[in-house]
Automatic annotation (TrEMBL):
Residues 17-243 form the ER-bound oxygenase mpaB/mpaB'/Rubber oxygenase catalytic domain. This is ER-bound oxygenase mpaB/mpaB'/Rubber oxygenase catalytic domain-containing protein. PANTHER family: BLR2777 PROTEIN, ER-BOUND OXYGENASE MPAB_MPAB'_RUBBER OXYGENASE CATALYTIC DOMAIN-CONTAINING PROTEIN. It comes from the Bacteria. InterPro entries: MPAB/Lcp_cat_dom (IPR018713). It comes from Nonomuraea maheshkhaliensis.
Length: 304
């Protein structure tokens, strides 16, 4: 009998499955980019080594592809994308004009910052939007994400594995954060991005994006918003209500419709994952998101 760990990196029983299938992850992803930008060296790394300003949605979709593969992909797919990411990072450098020094993109400190900004955003946004995870489940999610950190080259034992450890990490790193001109430009851009060529036909509807960008901004920690000062403050309850409404609407979309936001290769990977899970007894008639319901797992179906 095939073991579940040979089928997907994180099984449907994991806390990661609950978080990463929640559609408020789109808000969390942009929020993570805004938070990452506060680390001066990490921001320079993006500024100097990517086409982020020309294709912000491309970067978000590539991040979604990585997250998807190290969650729902097979171990072989996760190993492959991990090797690819580590190879790319190994070749890239960051020039700091303030000091004249050159830094490696794969510096463990920078990799850890990017990881923590991302996964803390995923966890905090989905929970605030209404995903019912207990404190124990939230800690479990961060422990599980140590595996994802290993794919980019971090040692799992160096990565926060609980909410308490994550809070302590941010307290340690905050004195090193600041709003550089690049960070300020990034947040302005994420609030009002330039559409890529393939989406220029949607330009007339671009004003509808701003409420989404503002929602991402307002989910940032208070200390990060105070650093940026990009938008006036609004009541916390209003932000939470808006996030819950976005989550409800996004989660109501049929999976095939929602998944068109991903790159074709990501969609193929997700379809292959569903097929493998279906072959060993999971009820995948409602797609991967349907497997957040334990009644669709093999043991439940057998008992029925």
């Amino acid at each position: 009998m095939t073991a579940i760990e040979d089928i997907v990196v994180q099984p449907p029983q994991s806390a990661t499955w609950q978080v990463h299938l929640d559609r408020s992850m789109w808000v969390a992803g942009v929020r993570g980019l805004m938070l990452q930008a506060l680390h001066p060296l990490a921001m320079l790394g993006v500024w100097q080594n990517s086409n982020f300003q020309e294709d912000p949605f491309g970067r978000l979709r590539r991040t979604a592809d990585f997250v998807g593969r190290v969650t729902f992909g097979s171990p072989q797919e996760a190993d492959e994308i991990g090797r690819r990411v580590r190879s790319i990072h190994k070749a890239l450098r960051i020039h700091d004009p303030a000091t004249g020094r050159t830094h490696r993109v794969d510096d463990p400190e920078l990799l850890l910052w990017v990881h923590c900004a991302e996964v803390s955003s995923y966890l905090e946004v989905t929970r605030r939007g209404g995903l019912g995870l207990s404190e124990r489940q939230a800690d479990r999610y961060l422990r599980e994400q140590r595996k994802s950190a290993a794919y980019v080259g971090l040692h799992p034992e160096d990565v926060p594995g609980s909410c308490g450890e994550m809070d302590a990490y941010f307290k340690r790193v905050r004195p090193r954060l600041r709003v550089t001109p690049e960070a300020a430009a990034t947040v302005r851009f994420l609030l009002w991005p330039r559409l890529p060529k393939e989406l220029r036909l949607l330009s007339p509807g671009k004003p509808a994006y701003f409420p989404f960008g503002a929602l991402c901004y307002y989910t940032l920690p208070g200390w990060a918003r105070r650093m940026y000062g990009a938008l006036p403050e609004v009541p916390r309850a209003s932000v939470t209500a808006a996030l819950a409404a976005f989550r409800l609407a996004a989660n109501s979309l049929p999976e095939p419709v929602h998944d068109h936001a991903f790159m074709p290769a990501t969609r193929d990977m997700l379809h292959a994952s569903a097929a493998r899970l279906g072959a060993v007894g999971y009820d995948v008639r409602k797609g991967l998101k349907g497997l957040t319901d334990p009644r669709r797992w093999p043991q439940a179906r057998s008992a029925a």
